[in-house]
Amino acid sequence: MTLAEIWFIAIAILWTGFFILEGFDFGVGMLFPVLGRKENNRRVMINTIGPVWDANEVWLLTAGGAMFAAFPEWYATVFSGLYIPLFLVLIGLILRGVSFEYRHKHDRDDWRKLFDSFIIFGSTVVPLVLGVGFANFVRGLPIVADPERRNWVMYGSFSNILGLFTPFALLGGLAFLVVFMFHGSLYIALKTLGDIRLEARALAAKLGVGALVLLGALTIWTTAAYGKGVISWIITALSILGIVLALFMNSKDREGWAFFGTVVSIATMVSGMFVAMWPNVVPALTPGNDLSIQAAASTSYTLQIMTVATVIFLPVVLAYQAWTFWVFRKRLSTKNLPAPTPAAN
């Protein structure tokens, strides 16, 4: 296996880690209108992800940075051709991050409602756009090789964002939304006590059914149309079984195992998409124009330097994030909330 192929797998792992970790963050934000009808419940929900949400987003930055360094042609093709959807992702992440920091700066209801709406918007639009985007990466993009410039450029309807919304892509976006809401509801149940825990478990039982239907449809369609044989069907089976495990364990009040089930399901769902893309980083809609792993890769020397740096620093980053989750492992409830501090004049 070449260094370029190893780095493709590494980037797939980074994206998978992002969707697992940030997935429950998105789920918590999307569930504000349902589980956060009371202010104290919203504060508890925010506090469950408060110590970890920004570290979870580092996985996205690392995945994008690795794409830029290891596969500059991949980065240039995707980020230039799909700049409108990626701009929406950026806006959603900015509004969401700012809202976590600013919603408690005043005790006025209208102030908190404004930033709560930003959290809901950002937590919804980012997974929706990324779900649509990854489905299109699997299906193929309208790219064509340009021999004179030695690169790949997009053409046709993808200059308009509406060109992204094919039935398969819409299924990808909806599946990401519902699976992440299910993932987030189980995380809330795992991290809380009292009424909100019971409400989260009850909601998870309903969301899990929708997640099973949508994820099952997405993974089966992906494997049937774009899969790589037996390995893709195995991944699909594991993804569906993960949701089934989560539903079963949630019914037995075993939130930890239920959350593990959604982790398995998201990991296999995303990895199945990267398996479908192999051996290309950007499949093309027209034959002969695929952007392959080898064609998109940086020089061997660049990949060697990246590999050495990763071997040195990755264990440190993983250890720090694991330590963070360990420190903030305890459950929360409304009884743990301090009294709100009045805003200074």
Describe what this molecule looks like in 3D:
It is a single chain. Helices cover 74% and strands 4% of the residues. It has 345 residues and is mainly α. The chain has a domain at 3-140 and 163-215. The strands form 2 sheets. The protein has a two-stranded antiparallel ribbon with strand order 1-2. The radius of gyration is 21 Å and the shape is globular. The mean pLDDT is 88.
Topology pattern, helix = H, strand = E: HHHHHHHEEHHHHEEHH
- The share of residues in extended strands comes to under 5%
User: What assembly state would you assign to the polypeptide chains in this entry?
Assistant: single chain
Question: Which class do the helix and strand fractions yield?
Answer: mainly alpha
Please state the overall shape, judged from the principal axes of the Cα atoms. globular
- Give helix % range: over 70%
Ends: how far apart?
63 Å
Biggest β-sheet, characterized? 2 strands, antiparallel
Q: What is the β-strand count?
A: 4
Give, in spatial order, the strands making up the sheet with the most strands. Answer: 1-2
Write down the overall mean pLDDT.
88
Low-confidence stretches: none
Contiguous helical run count:
13
Rg is: 21 Å
